[in-house]
Design brief:
Isoleucyl-tRNA Synthetase, domain 2; about 5% strand; two-stranded antiparallel sheet; about 40% helix; 2 domains; mainly alpha; globular; single chain; 10 helices; about 260 residues
Length: about 260
């Protein structure tokens, strides 16, 4: 891995990356060093395509530390977990002091609306958390309900209100932003299991790039034909929610391997 491709991530994630041609040698990630998350608290970093030139690293106790980078871009206006964690830091001095975070630092980064969702407005996560009286990031039951609503409605119905894609639907802007980030060398297309996967032989599985056949469900003509069919009078789901699930799936379903 060269000096332009250093990642803060778990050992498991590094192994997945090396099997996906991210790094110098397949299956052999090069470990540069070890750093504790606590040592990064309050440090300023550059967020890809972010509005602020630099943003602080803040704690999120609900993140999976053995998956991915362990560091995610925070969008508290639309991500309930992020908003709840930010409010914990703002409202709880002892919690803030534990991580060495100053209140002045938090106050210098007001929420930035990113998408607008019909019926939910421009800061859906923040508004719904306040409405449901979420008390902390550990209020999991409420946050899961809010997250499902924000993410489903935001992806299917939301449109961008910031950046180069103002007015574009989120479902259309997302793949374009991904392409831009990869083209600029500030992101990698990368996959890994959501949880630990153990094979029948007892080995832990990784996601690897291999020769496979893919069914191109994301082909525009196919998507258009299916979308027209499920919205026609010849197709009845008997439930508006079921129809919306069909439409959402048609939008996100892309290549599927065999």
């Amino acid at each position: 891995m060269n000096d332009k491709e250093l990642f803060i991530c778990s050992d498991r994630s590094a192994l997945n990356m090396s099997y996906q041609k991210i790094g110098e040698e397949r299956g052999k990630p090069k470990k540069i060093g070890t750093v504790k998350g606590m040592e990064l608290m309050g440090c300023l970093v550059s967020a890809p395509l972010g509005v602020y030139p630099f943003v602080p690293i803040l704690p999120l106790t609900t993140i999976k530390m053995d998956k991915g980078t362990g560091v995610v871009t925070s969008v508290p206006s639309d991500a309930p977990d992020d908003y709840a964690a930010l409010q914990d830091l703002i409202k709880k001095p002892l919690f803030r002091e534990k991580f060495g975070i100053k209140l002045e630092l938090l106050q210098s980064y007001p929420l930035i609306p990113v998408i607008e969702i019909p019926g939910l407005g421009r800061q859906a996560a923040a508004d719904l958390c306040e409405e449901a009286k979420v008390v902390s990031q550990n209020d999991r039951a409420k946050l899961e309900i809010i997250k499902e609503k924000c993410y489903k409605e935001g992806f299917a119905k939301g449109h961008m209100i910031i950046g180069d894609y103002v007015g574009m639907k989120v479902v259309e802007a997302k793949p374009l932003i991904k392409q831009v980030m990869i083209a600029r060398g500030i992101a990698h297309a990368y996959s890994e299991p959501d949880t630990v996967v153990i094979s029948r032989s007892g080995n832990e599985c990784v996601v690897a790039l291999a020769d496979q056949w893919y069914e191109e469900y994301g082909e525009p003509k196919w998507q258009s034909e299916v979308r027209n069919h499920v919205t026609s009078s010849n197709f009845d789901t008997y439930n508006p929610q079921t129809l919306q699930m069909f439409l959402t799936t048609i939008d996100w379903l892309k290549e599927w391997c065999w």
